[in-house]
Amino acid sequence: MKSSGYALRLLLVFSIFVAFSICLISSADAQDSVMKQARANFSPLPTAMESADNPITPQKIRLGKMLFYDTRISVDRTVSCFKCHWINLYGTDGLQKAIGNHYKENPRNAPTVFNAAGEISEHWIGNRKSVEDQAKQALLGAGSYGLTSYEEAEANLKAIPGYDSLFAKAFPNDKNPVNADNFAMAIGAWERTLVTPSRFDAYLKGDSTALTAAEKEGLSTFMDLGCIQCHNGTYVGGGMYQEFGLTEPYWNLTHSQKIDEGRFAVTKDEADKYVFKVPVLRNVEMTSPYFHDGSVAELNKAVRIMAKLQLGKTITDKQAELLVTFLESLTGKISADALSVPILPPEN
Amino acid sequence: MKSSGYALRLLLVFSIFVAFSICLISSADAQDSVMKQARANFSPLPTAMESADNPITPQKIRLGKMLFYDTRISVDRTVSCFKCHWINLYGTDGLQKAIGNHYKENPRNAPTVFNAAGEISEHWIGNRKSVEDQAKQALLGAGSYGLTSYEEAEANLKAIPGYDSLFAKAFPNDKNPVNADNFAMAIGAWERTLVTPSRFDAYLKGDSTALTAAEKEGLSTFMDLGCIQCHNGTYVGGGMYQEFGLTEPYWNLTHSQKIDEGRFAVTKDEADKYVFKVPVLRNVEMTSPYFHDGSVAELNKAVRIMAKLQLGKTITDKQAELLVTFLESLTGKISADALSVPILPPEN
């Protein structure tokens, strides 16, 4: 009896050990499988968002950063890139819709400039090809700089003597470097450096401890629900266009004051009605309010609306919370250089 | 004859030596006398502009700097201190008159926030006692934040959860630290650190090589013409009120679109008609346009107008140039901390 009791106890201990090991292994397996799935759908940020069309140089960055802040180029001297893209609000302005020269309201919410250069296009409806194209078009934008011609922009730039040598250094092969194209190239070059690496990037690079258990569960939820159908790639979005409101009109849930037909305005193709560029979700915690019209201020509410409108799913409180937890892990680090404002050349 | 010729040559050499020495000594004397006169009229910047009413602490500075940038407290979410006081435009906005909420024009030009806390009062007509008073009054200013009550400001601050702990740390003895008074105290504490030491300070401390010969000649001109009657002290101004247009109405030369009665609006005393606070001239090169209404954009023109209106003197081109040369030596260094923008707490 004694020996049989001993054997029984041994068996029990062994069984517990085996069960525990299985749990550990399957948990590790689950973790591995989350990471594996994540690595199949996302990739870490590059150190800069390079472009063959506009090679990044220190001289362009220096000038571009100044121009980004310089209101004196705009029609009423109140608008610069910074007006709608506050670096310390993670590249946004906290408004539903951006406000430009003479207090003109823009048609849509100001998207962030961080990690933006890697997107397929800029703005919400794909009418800005690149960050350079965006910067150039902003000069003539009725709701942004409000200038009437690129010549006017050039004249305003030339009125600030200090820019002459800065443009010459940034564009050494140009005979007349102070012009709107180079304004755009310099700002673009600077914006191509605006990446915000986060713990999510460390995780994607293989550090499984970089995310907390709750964040991993959130990531898993994000992938399993189907959010990754659109929000994927390096930027967790920004790679495609998609109809907003696949299951029902978006304004049913966003209570938007005005119906925006989205990309239809660009292509005049019925299939593009209510189609918008899928926004980048990096730093989304920091860039309220949400959607193309800034109609929703709370991230928790925004994820519920997205699940319903795009996936036809009514998610639970727990799921919404997990999604938000994961999304918060996408908040990255703004470099000290990006957080430092450049002194602008005087006008005298 | 030989010996007499030798004696003559010796005498000649000696005379040249004496004459040269006298020149050197008198030049050194002149330099000493410029420095002596400068040190009698000006003094170097302190490391911070302390106030017994609002002791500077790292916690207040940290919070104050954030609040300085936060537009979300204002009525239309577009106004923060930074809107009119761009750190990278040396604390001004490059506009003739500042523009506040809903594009409302302010009555006067935005004065710089650099070296401002040391002035006798803030703004142009002495209706803001201190930087703290200015920050608090800005909340209700029709042309600034545009709020209707300090309670509204408090509610807007409380709507951003991240501020709770920051106010608690900055004001550890307050039971309800998130309020308009502490908003003002925190911003004031930060602004009290905004000093911009320049080569002029090094000169005042005794380094005679800190200014160039032309700058010293400009300084001498500045003192001899009589500019120092008003522009003196640590801040080269900011220490008194004075009528603008002592010899003839100011608008004769500034071509101001509107006549501003200045401090009369505060005191209703006839003697205060057209009286304004003497502005600080530190960094004046960087803070165009000039005067209470920003009516003059060029520094060279501004100094000629001042000489005529205040001293009744028509200065020469050479004198104007020398004055500008001296004034440019007042451009100081903005600290790396002041040039770094703080990330603002999210709203979610």
Summarize the structure.
Chain A is mainly alpha-helical and 348 residues long. Chain A has 14 helices and two strands, in the order H-H-H-H-H-H-H-H-H-E-H-H-E-H-H-H. Helices cover 43% and strands 2% of the residues of chain A.
Write the layout of secondary structure elements.
The structure is a homodimer of 348-residue chains.
Chain A: H1 2-41, H2 58-69, H3 81-84, H4 131-140, H5 150-158, H6 163-170, H7 180-191, H8 199-204, H9 213-225, E1 241-243, H10 251-254, H11 264-267, E2 275-277, H12 299-311, H13 317-328, H14 336-339
Antiparallel strand pairs in A: 1-2
Helix pairs in contact in A: 1-9, 2-6, 2-7, 4-7, 9-13, 12-13
Report on the architecture of this protein.
Two copies of one chain form a homodimer. With 348 residues, the first copy, chain A, is mainly α. Helices cover 43% and strands 2% of the residues of chain A. The longest helix of chain A is centred in the N-terminal third of the chain and has 40 residues, at 2-41. The radius of gyration of chain A is 25 Å and the shape is globular. Chains A and B meet through loops of A and loops of B.
**SS summary, helix count of chain A:** 14
* Low-pLDDT segments, ≥5 res of chain A: none
User: Rg of chain A, please?
Assistant: 25 Å
| Largest interface between protein chains, with number of residues from each side | A-B, 34 and 34 residues
Class inferred from helices and paired strands of chain A: mainly alpha
* Strand-residue proportion of chain A: under 5%
Distance N to C terminus of chain A: 103 Å
Seen as an oligomer or otherwise, the chain set is: homodimer
**Strand arrangement in the largest pleated sheet of chain A:** 1-2
Largest sheet of chain A: 2 strands, antiparallel
Total beta strands of chain A: 2
Q: What's the SSE pattern of chain A?
A: HHHHHHHHHEHHEHHH
Average pLDDT across residues of chain A? 94
Helix content of chain A: 40-55%
Shape of chain A: globular
